[in-house]
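Schema walk-through. Below, the input block comes first and the output block second. Nothing else is stored per chain. Lengths vary across the set, and this one has 413 residues.
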Amino acid sequence: MTDRLTRRSVLQTGAVAGGLALAGCLSGDSEDLNYEIWALDQGTNTGYIYEPGEDEDSFEQVDSIDFAEHQGEVPHMVDFTADYEYAVVACTAGARTIVVRTEDREVVANLETGPGSHFAGISPDEEYIHVDVIGEGTIKRLDADFDEEEFEIVDEIVITEDETVQDHGGDFEGRDPICHQYTQEGYSYHTLGPSYHDGGLVIVDHDDFSVEKVLHGDDDDVPTNCGTIPHPTESKFYTTAGLPAEDPEDGIGEYFVFDTEENEVVERESTGGVDAHGFWYTPDGEELWVLNRQTDDGLILDPETDEVIEEIDDYGPAPDIMWSSPDGEYMFVTLRGPEQQSGSPHAAEGETPGFNVLSIEDREIVTTVEPDSIDNYSEEEIEDGDVPTPDFHGIGVRPIGDYDSEIPNSPPF
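--- output ---
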């Protein structure tokens, strides 16, 4: 996408009849079109950047970023500006949010946003970055000027001290912001956690940065504690809620559908597995994929009807976050390592840290990418908490070239 298309303009003018415009609707010379996969290894504090290889279903590493050089320990999740010129990475152990210029991988901002900075999301008008900070129980607001590459922390919402939250009643100690995304009505939905039993939802007016509504408690039981994603064109929003268990029969995997005009739950269903977490759309907007971390499986929903289209039997061992390729061919899914750097109580022990590549058409794994094979580490090193070992969590896909798309390949839409 070559023009600087702000997310606010997309929300105002980008509604596409029948669903999300295909990010793979291309113009120009197809040889000039490509994309990058940004995969975050929070175990070794490395961001790996891959591109499609010459062979079918192959991918080649083209670059890497050492976040530890910038005190960015445990780079956890990534978000992009609408033109994909900047990436924003929240680093939980590093207690900071890092802004990277994507073309040359240069770090242009490094802000101490607080311990457990879990997800940093760019507002629809791209004037702010909002950060869910687990360790402080806060939502931080950063003033963002991407053109001048200037960023500053300007405000925060403290969950336990906010007046609207207090008026709602109930104990919010330990119910901390986890993830968020933005609705077409001008709100951001922030899930709470980290445990399912700490779950809930805080709805923020992102223009004046104030809490609009809280959903938690006996009257509005919404224990959502994981992923967030808006519908691309309709007034709907999806969240997940998960709880792992030694006996999977005792675990929980759920997804919620919200009416974002009324800010109310309209549907609550099982994901068919345990510890529901990541989800993503296919670029034509016709499918919403959902995964379960503990049982390695998931569902495909029809975003128009919210009915289950199909089941995914196997995402790979300990899957976490996913993102689709802009041409609609692949779904990329991160895989956790045997030594988890984050996620408690959702820490899922993996086998092959890296990311799986699934064929969207066939619903099957076509290859596994392991940037730093776990076979390079001994059992002693894996068990030694002082030895960094691979553990992948966040992933993002950055289109390169003149993709003729009404809506970017990432929310908000």
